[in-house]
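Final report, results section. Input specification for complex C-07:
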Amino acid sequence: MMAEWRTAIFRLVGGLILAIVAGMGIGETALVVGSVLAAVLCWQLWQLYRLQRWLNHEQLQVPEAGGVWGNLIARLVVDKRRNRESRDRLSKIITRYSNVTQALPDGVVVLGNNNEIKGVNSAASLLLGIRLPQDSGQNIGNFIRDPEVTRFLNREQGDVLTIRSPRNLHMRVSLRLVVIGKTGFGSKLLIARDVTQLYQLERVRQDFIANVSHELRTPLTVITGYVELLLSEDIAKNQAMQKPLTRISDQTLRLTHIVDDLLNLSTLESSEPPVFSEIVDMPALIARNLLQARELSQGQHTFSSEVDEHLGLKGNAHELESMVSNLLSNAVRYTPQQGKISIRWANQTDAAVLQIQDNGIGIPAAHLSRLTQRFYRVDPGRSRETGGTGLGLAIVKHILDRHGARLQVDSQSDLGSTFSCLFRSDLAIRLGSSPPVKARVHKLVRRTG
Amino acid sequence: MNMNIDHHISSKFNEELEEIRTRALQMGGAVEKQLANALAAINKGDLGLAKEVMASDYLINAQEVEIDEQCTQILATRQPAARDLRLIVAVIKTITDLERMGDEAQRVGHMAKQLVEHSYPSKHFQQIRNLGNHVSHMLHDALDAFARTDMGAALRVLEEDERVDQEYEAIMRQLITFMMEDPRSIPRSLEIMWSARALERIGDRSCNIAEYVIYFVQGRDIRHTELSDVQDDLD
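Structure output:
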């Protein structure tokens, strides 16, 4: 490489010397040297021009040149070819990947930091009605405007949310948000899946349970009525009939409880979550249920309570009542005589906590995760004998879900169990002070009615 | 047509404009939800849902106040011109209409409550349901047109209004017949009439939003103009 440079410099120096000698010969040194330099400059400019033209227009032939220019051009040709090759290779990879993403049956939307749309596959356009390229760069909230989705997207790593598709209201789409960190392209992935069929199946199941429970109620009422009648009649005085009749009566009562609980559960499942506008007087509610629990226990247990007398909760009073009553009656049922049951209600650092603790038989760790399934029993024999329906905790779980709360169970065999319900602290309200939500209603409601 | 707002030297300004548009659309989403809930309350006779609709209207009102405030701020500090100004004017008008639609949805919720509480027969609900579905589609399309600044979609919303008006007329006529046949049905019929009226108004206001879209894109005010003239002009 150096050789060409040396030649070029020799040529220039040689040319200049020749020009000076020739110039001195005719007595016009400056003019001759000047013209030679100008010629050299022109030639270099011409080469530069050719080079640039070739760089700008792919299809042109490679300019022929020798020396330093030839070297440079040869180098550029090699670079250009390499670039083209790697570009082709990369674009092939990109096409392959984008074909794969396009073919995914689940919708994928790549979102930027402010939820702006960066990329969409075809399933996502189909499920969510986002069109590319005209929608790219816009906030996804402009198209999926459901307020729940907005809340969902602003959470860090959300769980799953099921919405109606904006394109077709009969379609149900489940959304899942995955945070992928800074990739330079997008920071979140929104994955959408068509769950219409699942949703419908679930609906069929719920309706079925609701209908069956409803249908069972009528014959049960008739049976209960007649059994009561028989028990009060002379037949009951007959020793042989007494026992079977009492058994029938007990079991009918149990069946009625199960049917009632099933109906409760299906109402909880099928109705919309409650509005958090009602403020429930939790201390009074707890006191009421504690009284009931004492009756159920018939003096076999000692009760204690530590209740924050000024702490209310936004939610549905009826549901919360049923939750507390279920938890307390469980505690009574699964705690042997002389056991201790305590209930606490207080605002802790990050949540309002309702805690019900007993020192009863406890629950082995293996059962904890399945505890809230319907009809799940740790020890089938025992729970039937205590008269449970097997649906209590399922109901509790549903009610907590509807209030955006969590159930936490700590338990050890033979040492007792602690059931903690953790409510969001913004739902906990000081009783006695005027509720801020209502105040806003009065201020902002206009032109209604 | 690419109408993305990204032509300003101040990127903060771009963000502000994007934000009010998104917020206006999200307020629209809240109204859509209210309307859907109100209609579902009628469909299922769900008292809880009806009450929820009636209790949540203040959220929409609060959003209107906030967005209004934000628009005023932008007008004062940025002194926008041309398309930016039109965007802000369109947003201010859109949210006013949205807020009114929220009130209409609340009225439908109120009717759902009345119907459940007095256990009215659901004979007329089918038509209300159809009208409701029709109108919620219109609202949805109008908001989509706003999001995409899509003139074609906006014009389609305007066309749709005629059909909604016809459906409304049909309900009216039927209710009048009922009322003449059986005066006892008058309270119920009036209740249904009010909600049909509310739904029809939502349709009209969706058209207003579609008109603001055209105003924003073209800078032309097409209010109080015959639809066919508008179409001829725009072609």
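Chain B has a mean pLDDT of 86. The interface with chain A takes residues 2, 4, 6, 18, 21-22, 25-26, 28-30, 32-33, 36-37, 46, 48-49, 51-52, 55-58, 61-62, 65, 100, 103, 106, 140, 143-144, 147-148 of chain B (CB under 8 Å). This concludes the modelling results for the funded period.
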